[in-house]
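Milestone M4 deliverable, item 7.
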Amino acid sequence: MAFIAVFVPFFMLGVLVALGRYEELMLPRAEDEPEVREAPSPVVAGVRDTGRDA
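Output delivered:
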């Protein structure tokens, strides 16, 4: 019984560390995130809207 009482906490700690490493592997890396770019202006009848009044 002493064997179980001593080694079970270490085993559980190992499981928690392994799960934490698995979670890190599942998350996307910060440098892999694509850049957010602004959408191009809409084109209506071949005229590009510049945001200024005509």
